[in-house]
Structures are given as structure tokens and as C-alpha cells.
Amino acid sequence: MAVVAWSSQDVAVVRGAFAFAAQVSDSNAVEWIRWGSASRRTLPTLRSRGKDVEGVDEVEWRRLVIIYQMPGVDVVSSSGIQSAKAVEDKLRALPGWKKLCGEVQPSLQALCQQGDSLVSASYGTMGEVLAAEAQQGVAAKIKLDGNGSKVLIDLQSLLTQYREHSFQTLQRWLPGDYDKPDYGGSQQIKGFRSSFSFALTKKSAGAPWRDFVLNEAEETLLAMGALSPRSEDQARFRAYMLADDVPSLQDRELQRAVVEDALGLVSFSLAAFVASLVVTRRLLVALSVLILAFTVPSIVSVGLLGTAAADDAASATPQVKIISFAAWFIVAAGLADLSMAIVRAIEQRRDSLRPFVPECVMVSMLATEQPNQIVFSEPKQKRAFVTRTWRFFCEALSPTCGIAITLLTLSTPDLEMIGVFGRHAGCGLLLATPLAVLLVLPAVEFGDIIAVWMHARRDESEWEPWEVLKLLMDYFMPYEFGIQSEWTVKLRVKVQRTARDILRMPLVRVLVPMFCFILLIILLPISHKPIYTAATPQLYVGGHRLYDMPLLFSKFQPLPEPAVAMKDRLEVATRCTPSAHDDVGCIWHHCEAGQTTAAQTAADAATQSQCKCWKQESNALNCHGSAARLWGLSSEQASTLLGSGSFWTWVAEQLRRAEFTDITYRKGLYLEVETWQTGLSSVEPGYSTYAGTDSWQSSCLQVMCFCSDMQCEMNQTFADTKSFASFDYTSPLSGANSSKLRNTTANSSVLTALSGRPALSQNRSVFLTVAWGITISQEPLGTGLDDRGVTFNGIELDDLGAQRHLLAFCEGTPPNLVVLNRGCWPIEFRSWLEKQSLRYPVPKAQFYSSLRKFFEEQAISATWSSLNLTAHQGDIGSGFWLTSDGKAQGLVLTFEVPEDESEPGSGIPKDLTLWESYIGLRNGRSPSTLGNAWLAPFSTAVAKGLLATAATVDKNAWTVSVHLVMWPSLWMFLMTWAVKLSVVAAVLNILCIMCHQRAVVSLAMDEVGVLEIIGQISFMALISLALLRVSQQIVMAQDGPGKDPAHKKKRQTRHQKVHRLSALLAKDDEGEKHVGEGEKKRKTRKRKSLASRFSFKVRSVSIFASNVNESLQKQEEKARKATMKEMSFQERKDLVKQLEVLNGPGLFHGGLRHERLGRTTRGLCRAAPATLSCAAMSLVCVPWLATSSMVGIVKVCWNAFTGAWVSLLLSLVFLPVFSVIGLGPSRVKGRAYSYFVWWLWRRRPKPDADGQPAGLLDTDLGTLGVAAAKVLGWPFLNLSMAEEIEKAALEEEFRKDSVKSDADQQDEEDEEGLTIKGLDVQGATAMPPFHIVMAVKDKFEVNG
User: Fold this and answer.
1) E strands within 37-162?
2) Which of 215, 506, 1135, 1228 is most buried, with most CB under 10 Å away?
3) How far apart, in whole angstroms, are the C-alpha atoms of residue 707 and residue 168?
4) What is the DSSP string of 1128-1161?
5) What Å distances lie between residue 626 and 617, 738, 740, 871, 1284, CA to CA?
6) What sign results for the dihedral spanned by CA atoms 1083, 1086, 1091, 1092?
7) What dihedral do alpha carbons 812, 815, 820, 824 form, nearest 10°?
């Protein structure tokens, strides 16, 4: 069944709840997180999203995304780019790639051939530089087409180039947490991304695209090792691939990792096999366990509980959630325990049919002298089958079923991972129970047959092995090889005696309860409550590709539409000399550093804060003013030095010229300085400043300053190769005059704009954002890039009704809603239209062109500009979500409002309910082309969501703990009816839960998540299984009552009782011969006596038939003689066993202790092998647990391992001790309760040793009642006044004995009687004089 389940169809291993961003889905937190993701895709202005390309709307876009990573090092390095280049070249050479990219329009082929890739930008080709351009300073033109064979642009220069000129492209390549590094510094980037977009037809976008991704691209990356889960491949270079319309790529990643770690899945079955073989020494049983440990999880996880991956049932692929692997460990351990329990139950099958009679029924039959043969006789046929089946279920199967039911009750709706684990483990154990019976039972029987045959063949063979080999075979070979197993029987007896001796020790019986009590006192006042968290637990070890994958994916911003790359990408990078013209379109400057000597290096080190300047003067007729370029200054230093005009004052002083006027400065291009000696390069930021001119090439005086260690070789740049002066840029220059500064326009970098705005302003205000055309899902968050949960409803912003509604929404706020600032472009747009002599709303055909012109040409008011900032942490300004054709599919408007004074610092706006009412009223009048407005969530939702989810986890943890204590105890009570033992098991379970929680809190740094709760379940499952197993065996075990020193003649009474029962039943048989003719045929068969029913060969019927008229005393005497003569040794032994059941345990404290001790040790020795097999199974799994990379599964298995070994201490030490000290079941107490009630009902008669016992009782009722009260103890002994009654009876007997002794003394003086001396009589097996002595004694009534 399992092979068919795995091989008949594809099976997908999925993360399940491990793929959730949080284990508890809080609606507010989910909305806020998804809103933050969606808000980062907005644009503050309306512009076209791509170039005007014909046929874009007629194609279907498919994108292939590859993310590269090198663990522990910067992947944006020469080795990382080179490895990524090899990957992308290999992909471009695939036939499927060429075919699909060849179908793309020529104007869009750059998106699939070159792609949006850092690798393509690095490996460019050289373009042609015209002579005129070379004279203006252009050194090279590099086409960023990815067709080059070597890197033409240094990576640091390339990143700086894109940061300065196309930062949007850099955002698509690098993670979102990429910050601007200091020039000359280094930053370790964890990964970078390349994307390739294909504009395909509808036919090619379906099956051909999926076949290419799965069969060509993925296989190629696997062959290169970039997608390999092997540890040696992961340590070098990694690639993660995503593709549109192929959502199974991440699941296939997981499946490959699981296959790589498949040894662990097989190790569970192998561990169960080894444990069963070692403990049972039966090879066939171990093979059965091996088969079951593999098939049961497969059938349950794939066939019964496998979820469908597709809506179409015919093409559905079963999905196995990976947390079920941890449940497989529990199933394998349960199978090892169950198989050993079944083997022990079969080996003890003769004892399993011994009658168990309730003590109240037994006392009733003893009192009335009416033994029920159905009760005492061994069951036959159907009743034997039912009895055997019920005993077998109770002894072997019921503990496993109880744990399975407990696990099935843990399917909590709030925590999916716990429910999946409980269902898989519970269903696995339930399915394993009948299958184990079907396989293990025949395995035991066939094993016995094979062992007998092998033993016979071994005896017939003349080959005699060496003693050492024979010893090894006897001790280590399986039972099926005909090996002698006497030593196992001896070992079992020795262990049972040792356990009995240990449990007899008073110190053990005192220390164990005291230890539990002290432990309970210590654990009850827990110093601090654990912190519960709903965070998704870690599945793989840190550093594994599947561990890094969700973290790496989350750092990248969502990709825009593919056509955006057509507009943002740089196609040509122009490299210029340091003195190039401003208007030649340079991207960066480049030069070579001059050779430095040791003396120059020492001098440079002494003047690290100096700027060295060179000058060059021009005599051209059309030159005017002066220009300077400074490299190596930070933005603050440039603002201080150039913004105040002190630099030109210092230049005027150095050149002895008049002061410069009309000074401006701006951010310039960066400078790449390459060191010829080392081949390294340095990138320095540049600033340009002008005095009386607007460009470098038109100035008469050109100054170039280097404020860093790296300086250009000036003989290739300036005619004057000596610096004319230097200054310290860390201290202010003298002569600064800010009044000379005409205009300072320092362009802030894009990274400054991306830094966002704080959620709260100086006056404690917050931003309230309203959105249209967007829907946020409240489904649980996933870790994949595709799981965004954001959909756009589609709006028609150019509709006249939509324009009017937006303007009314912005201007029509009621007076009681305080609005500090309005980030509403409709207000500014209407004002701009009025200045253009146009009217609002704009006609539909002219709307987008007018709005786009408004954003491009008209400066928006300072109020709106201050609000219209880039998205950051969920709070955004007004913006648009645009389609590929540049139309709005959603928009947001922002209002700055006061913060709620009742909750300062919470970020909640004042009068929030009024705002919600206002939005609701406006939605009632909203046109269908715009839809309803939606109030975006606030950042405080995250804090509230964390509290809510933590409370949910706390509640579920408490529920799980209650279930783990309640259900096993309840099941134990229903199966054993042992109240005290069930209470003891519940207390031990509570102690284990408290200890486990204490350990988890210490190891998990006070944080308890879902995986810790599952670990507690696995920990307690194996502990409860062992407690149920031992408790069930203790209850089912029977033992003799022990020796009763208070009754010296008990054996004699027992033998007499045998004869009385035989005679009584024989007389009934004689009476049956005189029945009527109607029943003659049915009654003519010779009825067997009660002794015959117990398998005895009693031939007393003929004796009684020939002496019908004789007295009852003679009949009993003859029957006694015939019975004792014909009894064999085995018959006497069996009779003694049945009499022990009939007589019951001795009603005294010694008998009570003996019964507890015997019952406990026998049950303990029967259950210990099953518990040991479970622990041995967990021990065999240790190598996989220590080496596996699936730390989430391993953590659960380690908890189960700990539980298996802790269960040995609890079930084999603690529980037996509690049973011995009086908290276990007892037949003595059951008999004592029956006698005590009967005694009270008879009005508490006094003990009378000379009185005739009722029925088949050994002693009079008064003596039995007092003894029962003494056994039951307080309060029965005190309330019944049994001691006082006994004392009064003893005094009366003493008085009678005194009177009788005086009379006997007088008679002895008159007549000498007959006395028999010196006969050694020892029970029913004594020599023949026993019968003579008994007859003489009864006839002459003598003493002695």
C-alpha cells in the first residue's frame, strides 16, 4: 500500500505552517504588513511606466528571477559576478531560452537577452568614441549589454554609477536594506537579483514556458550545483530561481532538501527494526515492525491526510506537510513499543485466560456454598475467543489506542502546525494497531515453528560448534535460528526478584514520594511566566539555503512591470577624464594614480586631512570666470567648505587675485582612481563649484583639488604638474563670507529621499492614509515573494464622477475633524487648471495627459510636497499604483492630523471613529468607477497583533497541557478502573509538563513558540504511553496472597475444601439421575464434578452410585480417598491456583503487602521490555538527530527522545513505588471491602474461633470482618469499632479457655486419652500416612 501510494503519483513535500510569516493570523497585523509591502510600490507622481512599445498590450509577460548568494562573503565581488555570469550564459544557451526569446518582439528582446541584470551591466562591450568627443574628455563608451568577456567597469564604480544615475535599477538588483556606503569603504551584500522578462504569446506562455523552467532551466542550475542542497555545493555559490506561473519551484527546493536528508526518514524505520530485534530477539517480528514503520506513515501522510495541490481532483498532487516527519518518529516509537507488548501478550497467553472474578461475587459464592462453574471454569469456544481478545486488547493494544486518541484531540484550529502533527501521529498509531496485530501475531507463530524446526535440525546434525561460537549464537542470534533461550528466562526471573527486593526497601518507598513532593514544591512557584510568541519556527539550520531563502527574499522589493526596465536601465556608460567638459554626458571620471615612493607615502600619512590643489589657466577669448572640481569630500565637508564661499576666498588669497563673486556649487560626478602598481581602484565623490561661470569648459581658471590619499597623475590632465597650494579641509578656512554665495543647490542623493519620514512629527501629529482600488487579504502570511495578498480592483480615475468625488473627499471634511495638512493632489490640480484657463473635472480623453503635465511642469505646493514622501514602514504620502500603460489602478491620499491625546505615542489619530464615519458616508456616494475608500492600518496594529497572537499561543499551550494530562488519565481509568493509579499518572504527567516547560524556558531564552509546544506533545506522548503500559500490566497481573501466619491450619482447610466441593458436586450428579422422562436424554450423560471442570480426573461417581443409602460422611470420606489417589502433580498444582482465586488473598497487612509487591513486580517485568524497546528506538536515531539540518524536525524528535528515556524512570521506578505503597489496585482491599460490608450488614458479629464458618469460608464472619477493618484502616477501623469488638471477643474466649482448662486438668487426672505423636505431615502431596492420620483423627477425635 505504501509503495503504491508513493509510486503511483507524484508527492510534493511542502512547508505547511513553516511557510507562514506568523503561526497566528491577526487581521490587523496582517493588513499592516501587507499594506507596507503594497505601499512601497506606489509612485508619488503620475508618469509613464515604460517606453512606448507597440504590441505590449497584446503579449503575456513571463519573468524568470534568479537571486545569487555566497554564504558569509560579499557576492557582489569579482568571484560572485563571474559565477553568476557562468550561470546566465548557460541559461541563454539553452534551446528553450533561445526559442522563447526569439519569439519576442525585437524592441523587447533586450529584456530577455540582456535582462535586468547586474551581470550584464558588468560584462559590457566597448563602443566607438568620436574624435570630437575625445577632445572634450570622453575616454570610453561602454555598452552595458552583457556581451563582453571581461569586466570593463569596476564593481564599486558600477554601483556608484547606478546609485547616482539610476537608483531605481539598483533597487531592483540589490536588497532593500542596502544603504549608501562611504566612498572607499566596503559593505557586505548578502545577495543580488537578476530578472529576465519574456513577452510571449498566449500559447507560448502556457505549457512551453513551464516545461522550459522545470525541464531545462532548473535542471541546468542543478547540474551546475547552484540549486543543489548538498552541503559542499551550498558553501560555494547559491542561486535561487523564481518564475511566473510556476509556483512549485520553492516546494521542489524543499523536496530536494528532504531527499538529500532522506537518511533521517529511513532511520526511523531502521531504528524501530533494530530496537525490536534487540529486545524481542525475533527476526520476523523486527521485519514486521520495519515494514509497518515505513508503510503506516506513508499511508497516513500520503493517502489519508495528504492535501491536494490542485483544484482538479484528477490532476491533484498529494502534498505532505513537513511537520508530519516529526509525527513519523512518534509512530515508529509506538510501533516498537506495540510489537513488544504483543509478543509478551502472546507468550503469556495461558495466563491470559485465568478467571478474573469480582471480589463481591467471590464472597457471595463462598458464603452461600454455591460456586458458579461458568465463573470458575476456563472459557471455551466463543467465550474463550471473546475473553482472549478482550484481554489481548487490554494488555497490548489499549495503551497505544489511548495515546492515539489523546493526539487526535490536539487538533487546535488556531495553530495549524499542532493540528497537523496531532492528526498524523494519532492516525498513524491508530492505523498501526490493527496492522501490527495482523503482522506481528503471525510473525510470532511462524517464528516459533521455524525455531522448533531449526532446533530439531540442529540436534539431528552432527556438527558441534565451538563453545565460543555457541555462546555467541545463544546470546546474539535471533530466536528463529533455534537458539536456546533458557538464559532469557533466567534473566527475567532474576530481574523480577531483583525488582521485588528493591521495592521491599523502605528507603526506596520513602525517597521516591518525597522526591516528587519536593519537585512539585519547587516547580509550583515558577519565577516568571514564559513569553509566548507566534513567530514561525526555524525549519533548517542557520546557513542552509532553505533557511536563508525566505530571509533573502524578504529583503528585496517587489519587482515592477517588466516594461519599467526599458526606461530606467542605462544602455551606455560614458567614462571621461577628470578635466572633461560638463556637457558630454559623462557618467564618471577616471584616471590613473601616480607612482608613490616611500617618502611620499610617509608625507601623505602626515598630511591626511590636506587637500592638494592644481590649477590650469586658459587664454581663450571666450573664457570667463573660474571653475573648480574637488574630490574626496563628504557631503557635510563640501557644504561647509563650498556653501560658505570660503574655498574661493582661500583661492583668491593663494593666487593674489580679487575676490570671486557669483559663486555656485553642486554635486558633481565621482572619480575613479586606479593604481597601476596594485590594480586596485578607489572611488571618490566629486563636487563642482563655479565663480562667474556656469561650466568647466568655459572657465578661464580651472582648479582641481584632491582631498584623499588617492590622487591622479597630473601630467596627463594639467599642464602644471605641481600643486600650487594645499589646505586643511577639517578646519574652517579664513575669510569666509556667506554673502558672496549666490545660489547653493546641493542635490540630495536618492538614498536621502528613501530614508522616509518619521511616523510622528514635532507637534505630535500622525498621518492618516486613505486608499482606493486596493484590497488587502487577511489570510496567513507566507514567506514567499508571491504571497502578497494584495489585489487591485481597478479604478477609472479619468471618470468625471471619480474626479468630483476625490475633490469633494479632500475639501469636504467636517469642521470637527481637525486636519493639519492635506496631501491631496486634486486640490493642487484644480488650482493649476484654473491658471491654465481650464476647468475641473477634466474630460476623459485629456485627463491623463493634463495630470501628467501637471506633475512634470508645475511645482506642487510646499504643504503637499512635504507630505508626498516615499514609502517607509507603512506610512506613505499620496501616490499611485500604475499599470504598464501608465494609468492608475489604485491611489492613496494622506492627511496629517493630531494624535490621540489619550494614548500619547501610540500613533493613533484623534477622532478615529469620526474619520471612519466620514469615510463610510463618502463611500455611500462613491461612484462605481472609483469604488469605496479604505482606511489604511497604523503601525500600532503590529504591537496589538503581537499581543493578540501571543495570547492565542498562550491559550493553546494551556489547552494542550490540559489534554495531555486529562485524556491519558481518563483512558487509564476506563481501562483499569484503578482510581488511585489514574491519579498518580495524572500527577506524574503534571510534574513532567512543569519540568519540560522549565527546561524549555531556560533553553529558549524565555520564548515559547509553536515548535516548543509540539516538542512538549512528543515528550509527553511517550511518557504517557509508558505509564499506560505499566499501569495496565499491573492491573492485569495476578499473584498469590502470600503466607498467612495467623492461620496455621489453612492448608488443611484448603484440602478439605477440595473434597467438600467434589462430594457436593457428586451428590448433585446423583440427584440428576432421577429427573423426569422429558429430560432424560439430555441428563443421562455423566456430569463431571467441579474438580473435573478444572481438568482433574476424578472418578468418584461410581463410588457415590453404589453407596446412595450411606451417610454423607462416608461418601465424603470415600470421595476424598479416591480423589487424592488419582491426582497427579500437575493437577494438584492447577487446583492450588484455582483455590488461590477462590480463597482470595489473605486479609492481613502481610498479605496486602505481598499482593502489592507481587502484582507490581509481575506487571513491571511484563511491561518493561515494551518501554525499553521505545527508548532503544530513540537511541538508534541519535546519529541522524545529531547530523540532520532540519533543526525544526530534530527539535521535536529530541523532545521525544528525552521523553522515551524519562519514561523509564517514571514507569519503572516511580509508578511501581507508588503502587507498592498503596496507590495501586489490590484484590486484598477489594475482598476486605466485601467482607466489611457483609460484616456490617450482619450487625458486626464478634470473632468466634470455634464457630462454624458459613458456606466455604475458612473463618467465621466476625473474624473476617475485624480483619477486613484492620486492612482497610482509617476511617473504617475507627468508625466500626472493630478493635473494641475484637478485644471483647478475646476476653470472653480467654475466660472460656480458663474454665475449660480447669475442667480438662481434672479429667486428665481421671483418665488417660489417646495421643498421636511425631507424624511429619506436609499438605496434599505428603506420604500415604496422611490419609490414615486424617481418618483416625476424624474417627477417634484425638489431639496432636
Assistant:
1) 60-69, 125-127, 138-143
2) 1228
3) 30
4) -HHHHHHHHHHHHHHH-S-SSHHHHHHHHHHHHH
5) 9, 18, 15, 41, 128
6) negative
7) 0
According to DSSP, the β-strands at 125-127 and 138-143 are antiparallel
- At residue 716, the pLDDT reads 65
- Provide the 8-state DSSP code for 76: S
Tell me the torsion sign for CA atoms 1056, 1058, 1061, 1062: negative
How many CA atoms, within 13 angstroms, populate the side-chain half-sphere of residue 1106?
6
Provide the pLDDT for residue 1322: 45
Q: Is residue 59 predicted with pLDDT exceeding 70?
A: yes
Q: Check: CB of residue 377 under 8 Å from CB of residue 1141.
A: no
Q: What is the pLDDT of residue 99?
A: 92
**Which position has the grid cell 509478543?**
343
CA distances from 1007 to 24, 528, 537, 889 (A): 15, 12, 11, 43
- Looking at residue 1111, its pLDDT comes to 45
Contact in structure between 888 and 797 (CB atoms under 8 Å):
yes
CA distance 673 to 1076: 130
Show the beta-strand stretches assigned E in 820-906. Answer: 821-823, 879-882, 888-898
| Cα pseudo-dihedral 557, 558, 561, 567, rounded to 10 | 0
Whether residue 750 is predicted with pLDDT greater than 60 in this model: the reply is no
**Which pLDDT belongs to residue 879?**
80
Contacts with 915 (C-beta within 8 Å, 6 or more apart), sequence order:
768, 817, 897, 909, 935
Strand ranges, E, within 417-533: 531-532
pLDDT of 172 higher than 70: yes
User: 249-260 b/e with 16+ CB inside 10 Å = b?
Assistant: bbbbbbbbbbee
Assess contact for 323 and 330: CB atoms under 8 A: no
Give tens-digit pLDDT for 363-396: 776 666 555 555 555 566 677 777 778 888 888 8
Q: Residue 573 in contact with residue 169, Cβ under 8 Å?
A: no
State whether the Cα torsion 83-84-87-93 is positive or negative: negative
How far apart CA 147 and CA 113 sit, in angstroms, is 10
Tell whether the torsion through CA atoms of 22, 28, 30 and 34 is positive or negative.
negative
Cis previous bond, 841, omega within 30? yes
Q: Which residue has the higher pLDDT, 785 or 410?
A: 410
Q: What confidence tens digit (pLDDT) does each residue in 919-970 have?
A: 999 998 899 899 899 888 876 666 666 667 778 888 888 889 999 999 999 9
Spatial neighbors of 115 by CB under 8 A, at least 6 apart, are 88, 146, 194, 195, 196, 197
Residue 1201: predicted pLDDT? 95
- Min mean pLDDT across 78-92, 105-119, 899-913, 1009-1023 is at 899-913
What distance lies between CA 177 and its chain's CA centroid?
29
**Predicted pLDDT at 604:** 57
Residue reference for cell 516548543: 1012
**pTM for the full predicted model:** 0.75
Give CA separation, 922 vs 49, 700, 813, 919, 929, in Å. Answer: 31, 65, 10, 5, 14
- Specify the amino acid at residue 699: S
- Asked if pLDDT for residue 110 goes beyond 70, the answer is yes
Residue 801: pLDDT over 80 = yes
CB atoms within 10 A of CB 671: 27
- How many whole angstroms separate alpha carbon 82 and alpha carbon 92? 15
Q: Could you list the beta-strand ranges (E) of 460-513.
A: none
- What's the distance, CA 724 to chain centroid? 71
DSSP assignment of 428-458 equals HHHHHHHHHHHHHHHHHHHHHHHHHHHHHHH
